Amino acid sequence: MENQRVAQIFQEIGDILELKGENRFRYLSYHRAAQTLLNLSKDIRKIYDNGELEGIPGIGKALAEKIAEILNTGKCGTHERLLAEFDKGLLELLTIRGLGPKKIKKFYDELGIDNIGKLKTAAEKGVLADLERMGEKSQADILKAIQEHEKHVARSHLITATFLAEFLIGYMKDCSKVSRAEYAGSLRRGRETVGDIDILATGKDHNQIIRHFLAHQDVSLVLAQGETKASVILEGGVQVDLRVVDEKSFGAALYYFTGSKNHNIATRKLAIKKGLKINEYGVFKGEKSIAGKTEKEIFKVLGLPYIIPELREDQGEVQAGFDGKLPKSVELADIRGDLHLHTNWSDGRNTLEEMVAAAQKLGYEYLCVSDHSTSARIANGLDLGRIKDQIKQVEALNKRLRGFKVFKGAEVDILTDGSLDFPDEILAQLDWITASVHSKFTLSSAEQTARLIKAISNPYVHVLGHPTGQIVNRREPYELDIAAVARAAAKNNVALEINSNMRLDLSATNIRIAKEHGVKFVINTDAHSIDQLGLMRFGVTTARRGWLEKGDVLNTLPIEALD
Ligand SMILES: [Zn+2]
Ligand SMILES: [Zn+2]
For the chain: N or C, fewer Cβ within 10 A? Predict the structure, then answer.
């Protein structure tokens, strides 16, 4: 899929314009377009072929022309010109958290730093701290950010990797010899990030299936190629491994390569106890295969109920299967509405009416408009006058809607001292308040925890939005005591959010901790455009990894229960 490549070019154009000190709106339009493309589930070339580029939110005529240029020529003139002006190493510096164009320019002018390696050396030697307006703390922060960057750089985000994998599966199925194709590995288990993509296929002519795979237009390097296996690197830098297996072993291979390794070890021990042998070809009694075509068969001969991939982490799921105590995992179809999304009143791209129409299309019964509060200036947060206007608009809209309700809400900033960014007079007029932290990420754990608990104990708050501040692959969670926050949330009847967008916050691990303290959850997309409403599935996946059931999730409830 070329979405990733086009997004990368747009991201770089935006980065260079930012470094050059160009107009903020100009570079942001490229950055936003890049994000949109990464979140797009449809193939950009298909959209282009249908002449619908300008139908993508945030893509105007100029950007549509650039996309067409990239799809037709593989390049973009603007991008090439800007690249010629700038060193690639300088651009990479922009990917370090907390480093903006101003600091980068300063480091370059004063210390000649033009890549991450030089920056790291300078920070380690203590040279950065001596610069004007820097100091020991800023230097330590930069070093920490470089270490995070090194950890992330080789892994893909769940959302982009899933769309890419689904696109590749579609491509494999275009081959007439392929009867089944699925992706496996940590991606199928729904991990936040994945190292590479594992694809399994079966069908009549193994050789031709492998040839079809290698012929994909995005393959930039073939690492290995054999009778049953091939490994490639795609244009975007992602490694994809294909294994072609016999039809009678497809389920066994899917199970084996989905892992996790530790889960597989647990079930292998179980098989041995039963006098069976399990491997990627099947389950065997002596030499005889007794299961292998489907995963269901495999669980059956092991004496287990089917365990969904999201739970296969060796976190007690095998024992729970035996004891009949596996969760009845929440499903996407259980979700009845989205309670955190933005419109063009703040930093969203679509009108409220457009968001409502898109939510209705998804079969939802409600949504909550939750634009930013005043102090979120970058996000065009609503002041008291504008939130009152919006409340009126929602009331008028609800009179026209049938079988659908828009809750009046807001994503209210939690200020440094834990108080909220709207006065009680406004909060009292709203149906549903999501309180979120968007600033002061570096407080100590004790301070951050106290700040969140104070916000949670505000009687107007319904949900703590993206509770740890993490953005997967981009920003680590801030320091906090999640158990203490969960206890306070349970006590005050405040739900914790599972944010389905790039944040994936809470994480599966934190969900399990929080659940132990009796908390309820909401799964929201935090959509900033209509297409992002479709990201709900990733929050649901994360909730399933956190052992949640329908009853744990408030937005599986009908309108009346929330009203
Ligand atoms: Zn937010
Ligand atoms: Zn938001």
Answer: C
Residues 6+ apart with CB under 8 A from 548: 327, 329, 330, 511, 515, 521
- Inter-CA distances, 194 with 153, 178, 282, Å: 11, 25, 26
> Using omega within 30 degrees of 0 as the cis cutoff, is the peptide bond preceding 506 cis?
yes
Give the closest ligand to the alpha carbon of residue 413.
1
**Span from the CA of 434 to the centroid of ligand 1 (angstroms):** 9
What's the fold here for domain 249-322? Answer: Beta Polymerase; domain 3 (3.30.210)
Most confident option among 103-107, 142-146, 529-533: 529-533
CA of 410 to the centre of ligand 1 (A): 10
For 26-57, the pLDDT digits (tens) are 888 998 999 888 888 888 999 999 999 998 88
Q: Are the C-beta atoms of residues 19 and 94 closer than 8 Å to each other?
A: yes
Residue 414: nearest ligand to its CA? 1
CATH homologous superfamily of domain 332-562?
A: Metal-dependent hydrolases (3.20.20.140)
Residue 1 has a pLDDT of: 63
* d(CA 503, ligand 1 centre) in Å: 10
What is 3-152's CATH number, 3.30.930.10, 1.10.150.110, 1.20.1250.20, 1.10.150.20? 1.10.150.110
Domains of the chain by residue range? 3-152, 156-244, 249-322, 332-562
Q: Which ligand is nearest to the CA of 370?
A: 2
* Domain 156-244, architecture per CATH: 2-Layer Sandwich (3.30)
Neighbours of 58 (CB within 10 A): 16
Element (H, E) at 243: strand 239-244
